[in-house]
Write a structure and sequence with these properties.
- This protein has a single domain, classed as Hexapeptide repeat proteins (UDP N-Acetylglucosamine Acyltransferase, domain 1).
- It is built from 1 helix and 20 strands.
- Strands 1, 2, 4, 6, 8, 9, 11, 12, 14, 15, 17 and 18 form a 12-stranded parallel sheet that branches.
- GO terms for molecular function: transferase activity.
- This is Putative carbonic anhydrase/acetyltransferase.
Amino acid sequence: MALRSYKGHIPKICINTYVDESAVLVGNIDIGHDSSIWPLVAARGDVNCIKIGERTNVQDGAILHVTRPTEGNENGYPLIIGDDVTVGHQAMLHGCQLGNRILVGMSAIIMDNVIVEDDVIIGGGSLVPPGKRLESGFLYVGSPVKQARPLTEEERAFLTVSAQNYVKLKNEYLEEY
């Protein structure tokens, strides 16, 4: 795996976490226990920090980045991802905050200063524009994203199942190495 220092910050990876050797992680990044970073993920914690919770998986080709502090925005926008989150293939997360038990669909884009509350599904290909707040318990789809409907009990349960499936898969990968 490519862990690169930037201005004295080196990515911190918890024990029992999988980071694929083709992923590139730069700078101020902190990844929680039992999480997984899959092939070709690019994560740059260079001008702000990236924090990824426990049992969270970031799938192939996803891009994770942040926004630097500026005069009008003294803290910038870090990227904060909670626990039991599934980030789909080729998703792009930029300076946003994701709660717990979230599924980000393939190729979804979530922009600066977005807050996604717990227990949310964001459909594949959706665009979440800057500054939007996605309320807990709903499916969001579209470009720009719109609240489609409340999640079913089965969908809510699947959010944890998805995360647990990736914990099992990353354990299998760790056994290979």
